[in-house]
């Protein structure tokens, strides 16, 4: 049988021949039982050495595609008959996901890599120019040296002890969360922490409650486990506790800086939520995603610091304080659930990057993290003030800002019937990226507004872009 092979150039001749012969067998162009040219004939046909064709045949034979018969030649093995022709498989039944995934919305769309407009108010983004890389580089070098001296083995699913100790000290001092280092479980960002809590608490069909509007990935995580997700409205004091469903096993809240609107939950609501959970044996996930950055007023106690019943799983992340690519977060679960959280963590992906965790632990224990937070806090305060000057001033005709006391984003609700899609499209035409809040609602009547993430926007760019937005809205 003649084999039609085409070799391009002289690089990796054996690799090219192997790939083409293998594809011909798998696709059915060389059916089971087909006799192949001898290695000498194939070498002559293709202008390669016999050593090359021998290597290819031996590799295919070792993988079960070819078999040699003494004195007869080389043939495609008979077992290949079980492999369907690719052209005939298109109408066959293909694997389908579990029905629960039909309820899970599509993943959040993110800006494409390399795409960057002149002004970009993407939320959750930090300014890497404020991060002192030299201090971090030293901590990574320390972690590399320590790792080189250790054994090559799997690590503790709860995370590196040095980082857990640093986190316990930090949340105890800054957020009033009383815990030991053994109580902390390091995760791949806050999202994994939320997912672990849902895995531990939720059986298929159980009811869970989330804020409306709220954080879509948290909702999706619970939907993927087969939970019945109920949206609970928020007002000026945060989550409306009296609207919680009695049967809820889990409640997800962002009490320090409600996502996305920004208001903190009042102390009265916090106490009411804790009492509600204690009466029903429900778990509260407290996502304190950017509470480090507070700009006015007295710090509001974390739910965890007020918890006397053991009903709060406190979740934090370094995505907003350092940068998202770090993919490091943590959870402090109630003592009664700690062992189950640890089992879920190990089943999920065993543990995260031990090198990153060791470096971050050293970064925090050396005091660099605290210095970094204080440094960027000053920059973010100036950016927040610059944004407010416009939203409460010239832009107040079209936008009503919800003024947060913490965090690195702010929401402006659109006035006069303006549609966020129209405003976003017009701004994009002027190289300005704006983002609506409609996607944070799961109900049928979402409000219209814009989320301004100012973590990566300098003061001068904020003034220039807000002036530009004013002119666009005046002509809308």
In angstroms, what separates the terminal alpha carbons? 71 Å
Q: How many strand elements?
A: 17
Helical region count? 14
Total number of domains: 3
- Main sheet overview: 8 strands, mixed
Structural class: alpha/beta
| Corresponding CATH superfamily of the largest domain | Type I PLP-dependent aspartate aminotransferase-like (Major domain)
The name of the CATH architecture of the largest domain is 3-Layer(aba) Sandwich
Mean pLDDT equals: 91
Strand proportion, as a percent range, falls in 5-15%
Tell me the overall shape.
Answer: globular
- Provide the spatial order of strands within the biggest beta sheet: 5-12-11-10-9-6-7-8
What gyration radius follows from the Cα positions, in whole Å?
A: 29 Å
CATH fold topology of the largest domain:
Aspartate Aminotransferase, domain 2
Helix content percent band: 25-40%
Quick tags:
single chain; 476 residues; alpha/beta; Arc Repressor Mutant, subunit A; Aspartate Aminotransferase, domain 1; Aspartate Aminotransferase, domain 2; 3 domains; 4-stranded antiparallel β-sheet; 17 strands; 38% helix
Draw up the topology in text:
Blueprint: H1 13-27, E1 35-36, H2 39-46, H3 50-62, E2 66-69, E3 73-76, E4 119-120, H4 133-149, H5 161-174, E5 185-187, H6 189-201, E6 207-212, H7 216-224, E7 228-235, E8 238-239, E9 248-253, H8 267-280, E10 283-287, H9 303-306, E11 312-317, E12 329-332, H10 338-349, H11 354-365, H12 368-391, E13 399-402, E14 409-414, H13 420-429, E15 432-433, E16 435-436, E17 449-453, H14 459-474
